[in-house]
Amino acid sequence: MLSIIIPTLNETDYLSKLLTSIRKQDFESCEIIIADALSKDQTLTIARQYNCQIVEGGLPAKGRNEGARTAKGELLLFLDADVILPDSFFKKTLEEFEKRSLDLASFVLFFLPHKRLSQFFVNIFYNRFIVLSEKFLPHAAVGVLIKKDLFDKVGGFDENIKLAEDHYLARRAKKATNARCGIIRSTKIFVSDRRFRQDGWLKTFLKYFLCELHLIFFGPVKSDIFKYRFGHYKNKN
């Protein structure tokens, strides 16, 4: 079984799109767990309409960990709430995951709404980089597929990290267990560009770039230097 875990906080505008894209998949052996951080909108109503299991969450790392504790699947798929999965996503992902004997995988990103210039920069500065560096500097953001036994072995997400706890999970798994980490080539994830539109493209790129440098040279970001706020991007279509 595949356990899909989605941390949420006031995601009325996005969650139904993600859940609809999951329902459209030609794949039935999965459970969906919503780890909710006390949403005040219709997030939980939507989750119940799609027969999702609901657990109490918190910040993304805590929510993902809480979801994983109740998960029954041998594989865990962590997704951000503002993504949409393309057709045959599960089929292609799981086939490649097994064929390459991966233990942890993530995905290239395709921004919505689609704009050529913004996608060009995402491809150059993120997508190509994470593919080229997958064997020695693994990345895992927006969508993370990991074996449950590996997730438990490394202790899940570090809840003390303020930003990029998902990338750090992949690097801990690589360092501690020599896990096989990779970027899936056969499909991709569509994700809202709301973070970039709200805070500005240059500012947001710079924040993630500096966060990457911090992670490489100083370790995970456990202070609030980047001022990350969960739920900051609600109602930004």
Largest sheet: 8 strands, mixed
* Count of helix runs: 9
Radius of gyration: 16 Å
CATH level-3 fold name: Spore Coat Polysaccharide Biosynthesis Protein SpsA, Chain A
Strand content: 15-25%
What is the ordering of alpha helices and beta strands?
EHEHEHEEHEHEHHEHH
Give the proportion of residues in helices: 40-55%
Which CATH class? Alpha Beta
DSSP strand count: 8
CATH architectural label: Alpha-Beta Complex
Strand order of the largest sheet: 3-2-1-4-7-6-8-5
Q: Between the first and last Cα atoms, what is the distance in angstroms?
A: 33 Å
Dominant shape? globular
Whole-number average pLDDT? 95
Structure write-up:
Helices cover 42% and strands 22% of the residues. By secondary structure, the chain is of the alpha/beta class. It has one domain (2-217): Spore Coat Polysaccharide Biosynthesis Protein SpsA, Chain A, CATH 3.90.550.10. It has an 8-stranded mixed beta sheet, with helices on both faces.
Could you outline the blueprint of secondary structure elements for this entry?
Blueprint: E1 2-8, H1 12-23, E2 30-36, H2 43-49, E3 53-56, H3 60-70, E4 75-79, E5 83-84, H4 89-99, E6 104-112, H5 116-132, E7 143-147, H6 148-153, H7 165-177, E8 181-192, H8 194-199, H9 201-217
Parallel strand pairs: 1-2, 1-4, 2-3, 6-8
Antiparallel strand pairs: 4-7, 5-8, 6-7
